[in-house]
Structure to design on (400 residues):
């Protein structure tokens, strides 16, 4: 069974987190959410994670604390970074996550980033390649990457997307990469999209 | 400021809950989530609500416990019932919610139901009128209502929709009814939908 680790922090965009997590579960992926504390956090003992306060006030209980040594490509097939300005700032500035992003891509695993989460491509010092993001952070990314305005951009293992409105195409792309095209098609019907909804 | 109460229970479809809550907050609506215990629950003291376990395993902390006397149309402009088979079963079979549904509609307030949440129209014994739902519960609803397969159906104050894939059009319709068409248009841009995405 393919598996994915999705990061969550205070300020994560809760639609991007929830749509990705839920759609991956529908797509036969074992998903774990990991709480990333702010870099300035004084928390040193990691017993059980607090609720993450989403960007619009929904409180979500993560499955576990982020532990770098439990998050490597030997444990998961993909890591995923949602947006939300404050949450993406916390996640993208966490050195252990920057290192994981490089390691996953070097080992031909999948790294998903959506919305402001794409800033992690910059902080992880990834080489210039096709990428997209929320328009609000385009200026930070357009020089270091081949910036695209497609809803979903796949550059080898790096999958990027734009915002809550593209979260379904983003999540379905990840399902296809992790579980195959047949599984992707199988789960679309019960989700009841409007006729002619663009899903790529 | 317009306000809305959205119900959540164990088994609620977390995308439908989150997309609706978050989009309404973006649309200038003050949103409160209320936990609805199963009818067989032995919990008698309501201090702080437990996390609701979503249909695909995401744990969400509700803002408050559902208290019928704090949930009337004097307190909110709308009540909203998300889907997810088990969560919708709990919510639709709660007599105090059935009574609220009738009261809100009688007072020309708004009642939103999506996916299996539309079963609450049946359990609340609403009169025959246009309605939609998740296809899986169509057979329970097609005789008592003018069943439609539109993504969103507005029948006076009753707003119904189909599933996670129609949750954005559903939420944007509620924003328009609660905050106006200009607010609806204002929030669509930053959500970054794909070009030509059907949003009604």
């Amino acid at each position: 069974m393919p598996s994915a680790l999705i990061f969550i922090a205070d300020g994560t965009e809760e639609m991007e987190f929830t749509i990705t997590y839920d759609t991956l579960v529908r797509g036969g992926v074992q998903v774990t959410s990991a709480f990333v504390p702010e870099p300035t956090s004084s928390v040193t003992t990691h017993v059980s994670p607090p609720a993450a306060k989403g960007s619009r006030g929904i409180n979500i209980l993560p499955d576990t604390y982020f532990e770098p040594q439990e998050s490597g490509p030997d444990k998961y097939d993909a890591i995923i970074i949602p947006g939300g300005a404050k949450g993406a700032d916390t996640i993208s500035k966490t050195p252990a996550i920057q290192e994981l992003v490089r390691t996953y891509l070097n080992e031909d695993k999948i790294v998903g980033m959506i919305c402001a989460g794409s800033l992690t491509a910059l902080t992880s010092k990834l080489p210039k390649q096709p990428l997209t993001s929320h328009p609000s952070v385009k200026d930070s990314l357009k020089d270091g990457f081949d910036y695209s305005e497609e809803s979903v951009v796949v550059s080898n293992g790096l999958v990027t997307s734009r915002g809550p409105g593209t979260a379904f195409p983003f999540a379905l792309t990840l399902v296809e990469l992790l579980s195959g095209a047949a599984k992707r098609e199988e789960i679309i019907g019960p989700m009841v999209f409007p006729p002619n909804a663009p899903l790529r």
